[in-house]
Amino acid sequence: MLASLSIVAGALCAVPASAQVRIKDIASFEGVRENQLVGYGLVVGLNGSGDSLNGSPFTKKSIEGMLERLGVGNLSGDAIKTKNTAAVMVTAKLPPFARRGSTIDVTVSSLGNASSLRGGTLIVTPLVGADGDIYAVGQGPISVAGYSAKGNAASIVDGVPTVARIENGAIVEKEINFELNSLNSVRLSLREPDFTTASRVAGVINDKLGHHTAEMLDPSTIEVRANGKYGVPEMLAMIENLPVTPDTVAKVVIDEKSGTIVIGSKVRIDQVAISQGGLTVKVKESYAVSQPKPISIGQTVVVPETSVQVEERSTKFSLLNGGDVSLQDLVDGLNAIGVGARQTISILQAIKAAGALHADLEII
């Protein structure tokens, strides 16, 4: 039976079709976004689980360069044999309007062949943006969620011990120059482009701030002009919490690997009859032993026996009437003929091929 499908469909049907959401939940504001930062550094203090310098030559070069900058020179490559250091890539996201001196979280990922970063400390690592400028500097003890342990004959690994995080592990050193107050207008970008949704967003904003304040430029962009009464920051604060009813495309999403089916509430189908049935052929092989009678000339032989059974399941039809069949009608019809998730996928594909399913069918 379609237990999982019924749960998904029931949850969707329980939500009103005209559910409202805040504008901030379906749109982003131009210029208000995160920026990606990346850096290369060293983690020290590992308990013998760091990079092997022969297998990670870049780690050896980094150690030599670091020691030279700290005044420890005249070291040959052969003199460095530590196993407590690992080369890592450090990544972070610079939040919008992050000010100098504020802190951000960083993620530390092993670059060499270190087995674990547990117990290590990241030393000063500059984090650069796409323009090559340094926007933050990271340093501090790292926290690893996974662990690894091994003996002579067995080992165990849980999680990923070569990836770690440092909460508030980087300090912002440079701000991104962007002043909202200097703008005369700002654009909203819908995360799911749609003409109807964009028109509704513009209408809700105009009702709140006045006529001609907002204008739909395309299915994903709405431009909002400052009207002189409010500055752009105050205007965005009022806009982001306005409720709006988004429109959605009718879609059926199928994951064939797991048998998961998600059907949108706007899916409609034409009048269609669905059947599910067929033949089941069972072939059973067995062997019997044939022996000659006592005091007779003969030979014991093995005789194969084959049993073939044919079972025909009665074909059941479920008729979905009307040209405006809803999601619940579709699910009830599929449940009525007792098919499973795999069979449901084939049925939905067949209905789509017949031209009766008015929705996008997406298979992932």
From TrEMBL:
Q: Which Pfam family, just one, is annotated for this protein?
A: FlgI
The Swiss-Prot or TrEMBL record annotates one GO molecular function as: structural molecule activity
The protein's matches in InterPro entries, at most eight in alphabetical order, are given as: Flag_FlgI
> Any idea which UniProt keywords this protein has?
Bacterial flagellum, Cell projection, Cilium, Flagellum, Periplasm, Signal
Q: Which residues form the signal peptide?
A: 1-19
Q: Which domain of life is it from?
A: Bacteria
A GO biological process of this protein is: bacterial-type flagellum-dependent cell motility
Known partners and oligomeric status = The basal body constitutes a major portion of the flagellar organelle and consists of four rings (L,P,S, and M) mounted on a central rod.
What protein name is recorded for this chain? Flagellar P-ring protein
Q: Which organism is it from?
A: Thioclava atlantica
